[in-house]
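Quick check before the chapter quiz. The format below is the same one you will see on the exam, so make sure you can read both the input and the output lines.
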Amino acid sequence: MLYLHSLKEAELVFKALSAPMRLRIMELIFEKEMSMNDLAQALGLTNSAITLHVGKLEEAGLVTLEAVSGKRGTTKIVRPNHHRLYIDLAPHKDEINTLFYEDSIAVGHYSSIDAHPTCGISTSKVIIGELDDPRTFNFPDRFQAGILWISWGSIVYPLPNRLKAGQTLTEIQISFEISSECPFTNDNFPSDIYFSLNGIPLGKWISPGDFGARRGMFSPHWWPDALNQYGLLKTLIINKNGTFIDGNSKISSTTISDLNIDYNSSIELKFEVPKDTANCGGLTLFGSTFGDYNQDIVVKLYYTEDQ
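Here is the expected output.
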């Protein structure tokens, strides 16, 4: 699935699909494998015309051209990149200040982890080590991980700090796909998930469940139905007014100034499910190759330029 976060981000896709001929090309390449020549013949187009249409689809990220050997030399096969298209039509509510740095952190790029069964970690191709074995979280493969889950414990991620001298941090937004962790799955399995930055508590969010009633939109075809399928996309926001989940649910009074972050600071984000919390339901973090959203942990640092 192709996930686009805004109408502006989807502009190229809209333009590519605005021509009926390109819609027909997309239909044909889903029916069977077709080369550029096959498409030209099927649609009654010249080679230059089909090249133009396919070029627009390729520019929008909807198709890929793959060179393969044929009886008469090399031919180009047109392959679809996505089976579904998901677009956020509602604009995201960001600060009026539009100056920000953005980074994406893969779920396996943690600096430390305290994992307790049930637990596991997997790349998009294979489960790393054995399920319910905390040692696997230290295997080198974990840097390619697209999903991980723990029954209780904590995960710490170092976040990039791109601030320069003369820039003042005004807001931090951290977006991630997350759910509880239940043996197998359970849509009604609440979990208290706590957040902190540089050891300063930010509050908690209660995950409603470990979702598995259907397959995740990005879950690999081989991924077992009985394991974690998808989560909820949540955004942790820290600004001058406090700490929020999704901008409308305040979870603490910790403000951006309480964090004392400047251009010299390191930044560490901690997810934690304490063993003794009221709802000890674990946590699952989904990366771009699992779940319902085509993203890893996305971090935005908003700032102003000092005068």
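If your answer matched, good. The mean pLDDT is 93.
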